[in-house]
Design a protein that fits this description.
The protein is of the alpha/beta class. The longest helix has 16 residues. It is 33% helix and 20% strand.
């Protein structure tokens, strides 16, 4: 990474932006940044010494900044980006700066793929630390017992690598971990063929690859002699079941590749980290269990339903689902219908738009096709509708990557 003294982040409160800004701050770089609204992440950065602005304005950009880092959601017409261009300040997307930052470590470990990146990253970091290592890392979700990021000792850097904008191809890795590949986000990188080519480029950029068998990866990586296939153990792993067992097994294999003793790695994997919004238990009594999960793709919904059916076989299963992005809802509409109707009842919240404000299908249409109920918001009235006539015992699972967690306190 070139010598930098001052960086301005546009969209600094984002899940991928805030920890990256924190890492730079911990490296002694002066940090400023802006976002449309204040949140806990931006407030923590301010407390740590960053200069934080609420709202975008040209004057937020320091004239002596060495670099502007911006979220992929921030367009070239943003006033701060225009101001940076007028000042001649170099500008990088978040993923481009991540690649530069990661290159300052001896061994970069990129966890990419369509599902499970945050959970596997957190599990791998947990195992490495339990095995006496001090990795640098960046996790795009809150994890119980772990910070979102750490600089580490300069040897290993473990990071999620986002496929949605193609910047995962910029990382040069000692190890790439790819648990699964689907065509999610294909619309934002030029189509399915381009997305798959990106994953192959990730493998080409890596000294070693670990991937999971039967998850779309076999065909992609079978021709790479440096790729190691993991076939998940039947009956679970390290006392875990379902997708959590698969995630832990992949993380343990990655830890061994990085130098951990296998027996010690498996023992550490049993203490699977609690990642925010990933099968989190919100409430439990003899009548009702409330679960929150980040599932926002049909495969994730299916895995969530299977997991909950196994864990609570005698319970009525009710889903409160928020579609995430109109493009995803349109692409997978029928698949969502199939997976949501596998539950005993379902309720659909409005689409969390995330960049696009409308589409050819919407949440009321999904609710109608599923034989479910459309909820207009996360109000007390909506929560009461979910609980109305609910058979007992019951599991209420709130699924989605948007603001659907607003209904949780009311349940």
């Amino acid at each position: 990474m070139t010598m930098l003294t001052k960086i301005h982040f546009i969209g600094i409160g984002g899940a991928g932006m805030a920890p990256l800004a924190s890492l730079a701050l911990n490296r002694g770089i002066q940090i400023s940044g802006s976002d449309l609204e204040s949140n806990e992440k931006s407030r923590q950065l301010a407390a740590a010494g960053a200069e934080i602005f609420t709202g975008h304005a040209a004057e937020n950009v320091p004239s002596d900044a060495d670099l502007i880092v911006y979220s992929s959601a921030v367009g070239a017409d943003n006033c701060e980006r225009r101001r940076g261009a007028a000042l001649g300040i170099r500008q990088l997307r978040r993923g481009e700066f991540l690649a530069e930052f990661a290159a300052s470590y001896r061994r970069c470990v990129a966890v990419t793929g369509s599902h499970g990146k945050s959970s596997i990253t957190a599990a791998l970091v947990t195992i490495l630390r339990r095995c006496g290592m001090e990795p640098g890392f960046m996790i795009g979700a809150a994890v119980k017992g772990l910070p979102a990021c750490a600089v580490g000792d300069g040897d290993i850097f473990v990071t999620e690598a986002d496929e949605s904008d193609g910047t995962h191809t910029l990382l040069k890795n000692f190890l790439a971990v790819v648990p699964n590949v689907e065509d999610d986000h294909s619309w934002s990188v030029g189509g399915t063929a381009a997305l798959m080519a990106n994953f192959r480029q990730v493998a080409a950029n890596s000294d070693h690859v670990i991937y999971c068998s039967g998850t779309g990866c076999d065909e992609l990586f079978a021709g790479y002699p440096h790729a190691q296939k993991i076939t998940p153990a039947t009956g679970g792993f390290a006392g875990l079941t379902g997708f959590q067992a698969v995630n832990a097994e992949i993380a343990a294999a990655a830890a061994v590749k990085l130098g951990c003793d296998r027996q010690q790695a498996v023992a550490a994997a049993a203490d699977y980290p609690q990642v925010a919004r990933r099968m989190n238990l919100i409430r439990q009594d003899e009548n009702i269990v409330v679960i929150e999960d980040y599932a926002h793709h049909p495969t994730e919904v299916r895995c969530a339903v299977q997991f909950l059916r196994t864990k609570y076989p005698a319970h009525h299963l009710s889903l409160v689902f928020q579609p995430h992005r109109y493009a995803r809802l349109e692409k997978y509409f029928e698949a969502f219908v199939t997976e949501l109707t596998a539950a005993d009842s379902c309720f659909i919240l409005p689409v969390f738009a995330a960049w696009s404000e409308s589409g050819t299908v919407d949440a009321p249409m999904l609710a109608k096709r599923c034989g479910g109920v459309f909820l207009p918001d996360c109000s007390m009235q909506s929560a009461d509708r979910v609980k109305q006539d609910l058979p007992r015992p019951a599991v209420i699972a709130v699924l989605g990557a948007g603001d659907c967690n607003g209904i949780l306190p009311l349940l």
